[in-house]
Design brief:
By secondary structure, this protein is α+β, with helices and mostly antiparallel strands. The protein has helices at residues 2-5, 7-42, 117-120, 273-276, 386-389, 458-463, 468-480, 483-489, 506-510, 523-540; strands spanning 53-59, 64-67, 76-86, 92-108, 121-130, 136-139, 145-153, 161-162, 166-178, 183-190, 192-195, 202-208, 213-219, 228-236, 239-241, 245-267, 281-295, 300-302, 309-317, 328-329, 334-352, 360-374, 404-405, 413-414. Strands 4, 5, 6, 8, 9 and 10 form a six-stranded antiparallel β-sheet that branches. Strand 18 (300-302) and strand 19 (309-317) form a beta hairpin. One of its GO terms (biological process) is ubiquitin-dependent endocytosis.
Length: 541
């Protein structure tokens, strides 16, 4: 009856009942889903059994860097130790085999058959070490088990590379076989780099017929993924003079970019060789820009010289965000190269020779495009390879130093020979006793004997004493002044005279002055005499 009297109200109530039922159903579903999620999240992942032996590698050698190009590099030396740790609860484990391989793996990103492991991955074993010749029992710590290994990477091997077409990796792969038949594996990646030392800059010339334009560009021999490098360019032949008029080429815009070209050859495995044919492979190429820029100013234009010149210098660099790759040329088929592409937009102008300011554009323009090869390599640092760091072995060391060559006679050398002449005269020096060899040398004390001035005898000199200042100078100059000053002052070596009582030599003047007892002088006189000697030395000097 209500539905007949109030049809709209009945419809609204029916809608509300339906919505309430839906909410209840959704809540039940939500509760069930939440419970199921909780159960899944609470369930911990299952862990496999813990191996009884743990292997690790300790690399002792410096970073593996191949110095120089692949044709002239001496390689890189790898040395390290393989460490074995016993973690078995019993405290010991018996190992039947323990070996390690050095592998070079090539992974193709675009193989002949996508799902074929043999088509997409190739592995080459460089060397192998077998550390056990018979089964051996290893015990838990504190026992330490380390096995040394070393290998010389040949210089022709490619460096570690990861590109969009393929990747080259080097890896240490160790394997241990226990007495229970369990196999424990361990792998350690190795990064091999190539660095070419820098050399003199290289200059390249490009001509653009039918015009007289010629560009000379100077570039460094090698560039690096990080950092900038200078580029110098001289554009000549921009002016063509005639009898009354001349035609010019004016530079309007310069653009440069660095292109990276990748090329990979993908052969097929033995199973899928029929798809390509015998001896055939797929070749994939990829080109991308790893650095670019442009400039509309910053060069110098000189129209007055013969032919005219435009000078320009700028810095170019690789974009680190693009992750540029160093140059690689692998026998496996991977090749990476870089090119510097420069584009110059020049416009033609016309002007009379009498008034060069009256310039009239002709409307003609040209795009000059140049391309140069770039050698991208890692930084060489000191550039010292392993063979130059190693000292010579005992058998290679000569008995004497090497001979030196004359500058004027390249064929002749200086050598060291034994002396075979007469016996050399040798005068033994006086040896003085010293209890402690670290003490300073001991000098002998001498009693000075002064010779009177002007040839006077000792008695006359005492009867007619000299003035005070002269007596001071006489007493001090005999011990501290040089022989030349003594000769100027009237002193002479009494050893040369007939009646001298003192015997002085040249060594007596060079020795440390002895301590004299000045009986006739007071203490203040000795101080004054010292001052007078200093003045005399200053005047003589």
């Amino acid at each position: 009856m209500d539905t007949v009297l109030h049809p709209i109200r009945a419809v609204k109530e029916e809608k509300e009942n339906r919505e309430g039922r839906k909410e209840k159903r959704m809540s039940l579903a939500g509760k069930q889903s939440s419970h199921s999620k909780d159960r899944k999240s609470s369930a911990s992942p299952r862990l496999g059994p813990r191996p009884p032996v743990q292997l690790s590698a300790i690399i002792e050698s410096p970073p593996l860097v191949l110095f120089g190009p692949s044709t002239g590099s001496t390689g890189a030396l790898l040395s390290g130790r393989l460490k074995l740790d016993v973690i078995d609860p019993t405290g010991q484990i018996k190992v039947h085999e323990l070996s390690m391989q050095l592998l070079a793996e090539i992974v193709l990103k675009k193989p002949v058959v996508k799902d074929c492991a043999d088509c997409s991955r190739r592995s080459n074993q460089l060397t192998e070490w077998k550390f056990l010749s018979e089964p051996k029992t290893f015990h838990k710590a504190p026992a330490d088990y380390q096995f040394p290994f070393s290998f010389l990477f040949p210089g022709h091997l490619p460096a570690t590379t990861h590109t969009s077409l393929a990747s080259i990796e080097y890896m240490l792969s160790a394997r241990a076989l226990t007495s229970t038949g369990e196999v424990i594996k361990f792998s350690h990646p190795l990064k091999v780099q190539r660095a070419i030392p820098p050399g003199p800059d290289k200059a390249s010339i490009r001509i653009f017929p039918p015009t007289h334009l010629a560009a000379r560009v100077v570039l460094p021999p090698v560039i690096h993924p990080i950092g900038s490098f200078p580029v110098q360019m001289v554009l000549s032949g921009v002016v063509d003079k005639k009898t009354e008029t001349q035609t010019r080429w004016r530079l309007r815009k310069m653009m440069w970019r660095i292109e990276e070209h990748q090329k990979m050859t993908s052969p097929a495995c033995t199973k899928h060789q029929s798809k390509l044919g015998e001896g055939k492979a797929l070749q994939h190429t990829d080109t991308r820009i790893v650095g670019s820029d442009e400039a509309k100013s910053g060069w110098k234009t000189d129209f007055d010289t013969a032919g005219g010149e435009i000078h320009m210098e700028f810095d170019a660099n690789l974009d680190p965000t693009k992750h540029p790759i160093c140059d690689v040329e692998s026998p496996a088929g991977l090749e990476v190269k870089h090119n510097l592409v420069m584009e110059l937009i020049v416009a033609e102008e016309f002007c009379p020779n009498k008034n060069t300011r009256m310039i009239t554009p002709t409307g003609a323009a040209r795009v000059l495009r140049m391309q140069f090869n770039l050698n991208v390599t890692e930084r060489a640092g000191m550039g010292i390879s392993w063979d130059e760091e190693m000292p010579p072995v005992y058998e290679d060391v000569p008995e004497s130093p090497p001979g030196y060559k004359y500058a004027d006679a390249p064929g002749e050398e200086c050598t060291i020979t034994d002396y075979t002449g007469e016996e050399l005269e040798y005068e033994e020096l006086e040896r003085m006793h010293s209890e402690n060899p670290n003490d300073p040398p001991i000098y002998r004390e001498r009693t000075p004997v002064l010779k009177p001035l002007g040839g006077l005898s000792r008695g006359e000199s005492s009867q007619n004493p000299l003035p005070r200042g002269e007596r001071r100078a006489t007493s001090m100059s005999s011990s501290t002044l040089s022989p030349r000053i003594l000769a100027q002052s009237g002193f002479h070596n009494t050893a040369q005279g007939a009646g001298g009582s003192a015997h002085w030599t040249e060594n007596d003047f060079e020795a440390e002055p002895p301590q004299y007892s000045l009986n006739n002088l007071r203490i203040d006189d000795a101080a004054e005499s010292t001052d007078s000697v200093d003045v005399a030395q200053g005047e003589s000097a």
